Amino acid sequence: MSRRNLTKKTTPVDVPKEISHVDSKMGKRKRKRTLSSSSLSSSCSALSNSSASNDTTFSKAADPEVDLTEEVAYSVKEVEAPMYIPSDKDKASVNLIAEIQKNRLLLNIGGKKFETSAPTLKNEPEGLLAEMISKDSDVAPYKAEGLTTYLLDRSPRFFDFVLDYLRDPLNFVKILPSNKQVLRQLHVEATYYRLTGLVEILEQQGRSSIWEK
Asked: If you ran DSSP here, which 8-state letter would residue 208 be given?
């Protein structure tokens, strides 16, 4: 037997088409996975570079909120206030207030008490009220609520107007009531208290018509 005949012949095996097709698909999937992993690595690398860039851009030195925690020292120049020098008129007003405080009194008018002062009642020197509180008066006051008190048996309804006139005689005409009935009664009270200035205001200033119906 010759040596050529002893050589074993190899017969090629046919691979089914279905198996070849599956291997081809799996190869594609592997390539896709490889590409996906590569893309993910690139994205992470880009994000890392972006964070590093941001850290460099927004440093503490450039952060505007850093200054909020830092103490700021400043100073304000002291300015002297202008010196107040009261005028003679201002001094007179203050002195009058001081005198009123020392000479408070009560008037019991028909059971209603009105607190006032001796300087106010003396604004009409010839009036009944000024005479009543004078040193030579025969009217003896009494004490009520710790104050010198005088009793007058008159209606208290319009006595507010009487006191308003005595407190500011020059400007009372500006607040004169317009009701004719009130003006008539006030004229009666002004006459009783002998307040000639108030009587003149009521009879003048175009108020003579108060007696007309």
From this structure: G
What whole-number distance in Å separates Cα of residue 92 and Cα of residue 30? 109
Nearest to 47 by CA among 55, 58, 59: 55
Q: Which two tokens stand for residue 40?
A: 């993910």
**Class for the domain spanning 94-211:** alpha beta
pLDDT top residue among 86 and 124: 124
Distance between CA atoms of residues 135 and 133, nearest Å: 7
pLDDT single digits (tens) 38-47: 555 555 555 5
For the record, the structure tokens of 128 come out as: 């009944």
Please provide the DSSP assignment of 113-163 as one string: EEEEEHHHHTTSTTSHHHHHTSTT--PPPEEETTEEEEEE-S-STTHHHHH
How does pLDDT run across 141-193, given as a tens digit for each residue? 999 988 899 999 999 999 999 999 999 999 999 998 888 889 999 999 999 99
* Structure tokens that stand for 15 in this block: 């691979």
> What pLDDT, on the 0 to 100 scale, is given for residue 63?
54
E strand or H helix that includes residue 106: strand 104-109
> 130 near 121, Cβ under 8 Å?
yes
Q: Are strands 112-117 and 142-144 parallel, antiparallel or unpaired?
A: unpaired
Domain boundaries, the chain: 94-211
Q: What is the pTM of this model?
A: 0.54
- Quick: pLDDT tens for 7-37: 455 555 554 555 455 455 555 555 545 445 5
